[in-house]
Amino acid sequence: MSKKFNKKEFINDVKANVRALYRRNLDEATQQQIFQAVSYTVKDTIIDNWLATQEQYEKDDPKYVYYMSMEFLMGRALGNNLINLTEYEDVKEALAEIGFDLNVIEDQEPDAALGNGGLGRLAACFLDSLATLGYPAYGCGIRYRYGMFKQKIEDGYQVEVPDNWLKDGNPFELRRPEYAKEVKFGGYVRVVYDEKTGRNHFVQEGYQVVRAVPYDFPIVGYNNRVVNTLRVWDAEAVSEFQLDSFDKGDYRKAVEQENLARNIVEVLYPNDNHYAGKELRLKQQYFFISASVQAAVSKYKKKHSDIRKFYEKATFQLNDTHPTVAVAELMRILIDEEGLTWEEAWDVTTKTCAYTNHTIMAEALEKWPIELFSRLLPRIYQIIEEINRRFVAEIEARYPGNFEKVRKMAIIFDGQVKMAHLAIAAGYSVNGVAELHTEILKKQELKDFYEMMPEKFNNKTNGITQRRFLLHGNPLLAAWVTDHIGDEWITDLPQIAKLKVYADDRKAQQEFMNIKYQNKVRLAKYIREHNGIEVDPRSIFDVQVKRLHEYKRQLLNILHVMYLYNQIKDHPEMDFYPRTFIFGAKAAAGYRRAKLTIKLINSVADVINNDASIKNKLKVVFIEDYRVSNAELIFAAADVSEQISTASKEASGTGNMKFMLNGAPTLGTMDGANVEIVKEVGEENAFIFGLSADEVINYENNGGYYPENIFNSDQDIRRVLMQLINGTYAPNDPEMFRDIYDSLLNTKSSDRADTYFILADFKSYAEAQRRVEEAYRDEARWAKMAMLNTACSGKFTSDRTIQQYVDEIWHLDKEVIEA
Ligand SMILES: *Cc1c(COP(=O)(O)O)cnc(C)c1O
Question: How many Å lie between the centroid of ligand 1 and the Cα of residue 611?
Fold first, then answer.
């Protein structure tokens, strides 16, 4: 396929790069300098393929998908690029020859953490799959100067440290100033009547302008020479000479524009599944969307003259509502700049935009105040008003006299612009991200929209890339799988089902569990080096890693640990299989209860890990700074996958899929994609507990439930809860965890008590945990279970997800790069 790897040439290139970049010889270079030099060498290969891809696309003139997302949680590039170039082993060997360890070199690279969690990581997996399947695609996003904060744990508390990921330079990015675009904010709209056409023209004046400069990141397909592009936009001030004549010499304005440019791409908002309504956030959204839509239109016009057929060559996938201004921005360009009528522009827009819904939780829904929106984006607001006027007319025509329908579906209502409603009204597709989630959308959250336009609604169950999360993250298991069934699973994950024939094979079971053990040793080393805690790789590694959020119920997990600790203390003679509970989670910087939960986990860890009387039967570890790079180590080493969200709240989850791929059975609720995981692997190979989504929704629709009944009738639970407020885990400040206690029992706040049904599910969870222990004690049974999880994970590749998007939404043609 690609040019054959030449070890000698590679070493020479690395040497030359170390000289050119740092004026040093190999033996004087730091590991970081070697990382840079190796990356530039690899980039050379990539650029050959990037050019070849561009040439092929240029020739074939295909349709592109523009995957628009505020977040791309890419992680590290070097190892992944080597994997996809199929040069990982070659480079490892070449580096060893000159005295360097590729693993150590990889560790020099900062994670590209331009995302919070699942939504951003999904975007990254999708780009990998698009390139591997050979579909023309652009990722469109923001080049934040600071990505997701680094998490330090100090005295058990989360401390946020800025993530200066660009400080040593980013070897893989390419600045493309020739494709810069201008983005306008504020000012007012002047209406000019054109006598010749008899139409009004809309001119934005008195605005501030920012230059958007794209940086391109190569997205390398697996072993196919395809290199697609992630294009993220940086903001620069437009120099004062380029102000329009109206503003010439306006010094104050020049300074304001400078500040706007500096602030706009400064930092990623660290909220996951939570809308904060900040003005700067809306600026970020319009900034990257305006630049991306302008770029897509420019690209189309290079080859085509009829803008009314734009949708034949471009489709926009909106990753949640964050990029939804794309709808109005495309309308603006088509009407104001391309001269289309409203009807023509609407026809193009509604054939171009498609929307993915990621959550049903009310606090995540984006609703912008009209005042803010119209001040910042006056022309865009005008367009949305007109979209709303026509949409409301449609609702009224469909449901005459039914004002309730207008109230529930209008795009602008009650002083707010509702982005989800705009995305649904203008999108040709609305998809949920797991079967259960899509059904809840249709039956509950978006019921009225579904009733009015059922043809738009569809499901695309999320997926993950096996190239990063098995081939790169778990090389031992990857090699074992390939030994047994060949390597086609790398691009065709369902083939991994061929492992099923080994599920009862004692030798295969032992090999499989021995690999798990080695991965646990590798993680134990990481924990020793990063936490200073000694964990026993022979204990059960029970893992919950994901964003810290009440609905994900890390609290249920740690309360259960407190319960187990009580049991062991009460019954020291009890036969208890040693367990290591591993947590990893960042909390949004302003999410107080989530941060207090981190403190609770660390406080419980302190007490338990230092209690010699329990003889290491229990360990609790909070891994600092959970992110893509350490996630790869964690999934490979997990025995148990904790997926314990309140049923109906987790739209899909993707962490659950990564655990499954790596042979960790799910301990979880029937929520999100857990439902589909259980369907694939069989109920007997998972540990399911808790209320169903229907039951939760039923309670919610009827005013909640009464956790105090459980508190009063169950002394184990009562004891654990009392330990939150009696100083057991905070001897110097017994009130420390009062807020958590209150959240479960009291209605001091306006919230219902125990909004997330933790007490309701506690006993069922504890029972499921007992089943986990029992299953683990039977080595053969556990090995079979673990292996079947890997073997049944074929559905959850993002290659499948992307193929479904292509077949059912985007309708792209596969490209092949000719030699
Ligand atoms: C996969 C992944 C997530 C999403 O995890 P969920 O359990 O689905 O919430 C978040 N962060 C990182 C670093 C991931 O790799």
Answer: 32
